[in-house]
Design brief:
Layout (H helix, E strand, L loop, with lengths): L3 E9 L5 E10 L4 E5 L6 H9 L6 E6 L2 E2 L10 E4 L11 H11 L4 H15 L14 H13 L5 E5 L7 H18 L2 E6 L2 H7 L2 E6 L2 E6 L1 H6 L4 H6 L6 E6 L4 E4 L2 E4 L1 H4 L10 E6 L5 E2 L5 E13 L4 E7 L2 E7 L10 E7 L3 E5 L8
Parallel strand pairs: 3-8, 3-9, 6-7, 7-8
Antiparallel strand pairs: 1-2, 1-4, 4-5, 9-10, 11-14, 12-13, 14-20, 15-19, 16-17, 16-19, 17-18
Bound molecules: adenosine-5'-diphosphate.
Adenosine-5'-diphosphate (ADP) binds next to helix 1.
């Protein structure tokens, strides 16, 4: 039996808006689950239904096999860290972390021990006497997490906890959240629109779009085995390149290059003759030059961006465009003409009508 199960969960808001459709997921104890997707896809709504802050319109949510739909937030033993980590400005870090326990009337000695323990996990030991105004954004966020983890709960819910931090702090805090998860082993559900956060933190990722789950899998599965165009394009930076075309004689064109789709699909290509398909490949999956067992492409270099560890090369072939990621030492000249190869194993073909991957 899984720790948390969501069975055909739906959310229809009072105004009639159907925000979440048939959400199904089982979560094991200790897992780090990330809900990711563009703004408005239903991530927070789903999280808030798990927290008990929003009614579940349809479907069943169970904790340890027991129906929890009607349980209040406290009864669910779930703690939530919100986007805006409103700390009490007139209280020290110690008092902010202790607040929930103080309210419950917990013994002072026990509070002291727990706060110190929590502060140690979060690296806040030296800051317990400070007030929030004397902390950096990252430290404030850690205090907010401290307030949540000091309560003995089974599940932590985090809704875009890093969105108020600058880019550098986000990266630091991201690894700290991973560390906190390793230290506490707590089951965590984390909401973000940022695919890098999802990829780096999650044991499993749930990709959502327009209220529907698109795919659930490990970061590896989502990157290497995307089920549709949306997931393929959402995971990875820069995103996967997509070349659309109508299959004629098993082929589509990429500028003046001919892509023989039967090389990848074999006989299955027949079924799509005369139909639209999408040919996908990742910027980083190419090799410069002409290689065997690969699609060989000739294209013009429009622009290059040297990023230090790699260079993004923007290419055009006729009306088609793509981005390639190359070693900075191999950066081609702008306006030059280059050959590159896409290994067959790195090519994804999607049905143009359903946008599902063709296996
Ligand atoms: P996300 O967290 O993925 O950005 P949300 O779960 O916040 O998305 O919202 C999902 C959709 O539900 C959005 O289109 C949003 O406008 C809508 N929505 C959110 N709250 C309400 C509400 N109280 N009433 C009606 N629609 C809502």
């Amino acid at each position: 039996m899984s720790y948390l199960t969501l069975k055909n969960i739906n959310k229809i808001y009072p105004n009639g808006y159907h925000a979440v459709h048939d959400f199904n997921l089982s979560i094991e104890k200790g897992e780090f689950i990330v809900f990711v997707g563009p703004s408005g896809c239903g991530k927070s709504t789903t999280l808030r239904m798990i927290a008990g802050l929003e009614d579940i319109s349809n479907g069943e949510f169970c904790i340890n096999g027991k129906r929890a739909n009607e349980m209040g937030p406290r009864e669910r033993e779930i703690a939530m860290v919100f986007q805006s980590y409103a700390l009490y400005p007139q209280m020290t870090v110690f008092d902010n972390i202790a607040f929930g326990l103080t309210l419950q009337g917990v013994d002072e000695d026990i509070i002291e021990e727990k706060v110190k323990n929590t502060a140690r996990i979060l690296g806040l030991t030296d800051y317990l006497d400070r007030f929030p105004r004397a902390l950096s954004g990252g430290q404030r966020q850690r205090v907010a997490i401290g307030r949540a983890i000091i309560r003995k709960v089974g599940v932590f819910l985090m809704d875009e906890p890093l969105s108020n931090l600058d880019a550098k702090q986000r990266v630091t805090m991201r690894s700290e959240i991973a560390q906190i998860h390793r230290n506490t082993g707590a089951t965590t559900i984390y909401v973000t629109h940022d695919q890098t956060e999802a990829m780096t933190l999650a044991d499993r990722i749930v990709v959502m779009k327009d209220g529907y789950v698109q795919q659930i899998g490990t970061p590896y599965e989502l990157y290497y085995q995307p089920v549709n165009v949306f997931v393929a394009g959402f995971i990875g930076e820069p995103p996967m390149n997509f070349i659309k075309g109508t299959l004629k004689g098993g082929k589509i064109s990429f500028g003046k290059n001919v892509l023989d789709v039967t090389k990848k699909l074999g006989d299955k290509a027949k079924k799509y003759e005369g139909k639209e398909i999408v040919f996908g490949f990742r910027p980083e999956a190419i090799e410069l030059g002409k290689k065997d067992n690969a699609y060989q492409i000739n294209a013009e270099v429009e622009l290059t961006e040297m990023l230090g560890d790699n260079t993004n090369v923007y290419i055009t072939a006729g009306d088609d465009k793509a981005i390639l990621k190359v070693d900075p030492h191999d950066t081609p000249a702008v306006d030059s003409n280059i050959d590159f190869s896409i290994p067959l194993s790195e090519v994804y073909i999607f049905d143009g009508a359903t946008e599902m991957v063709i296996k």
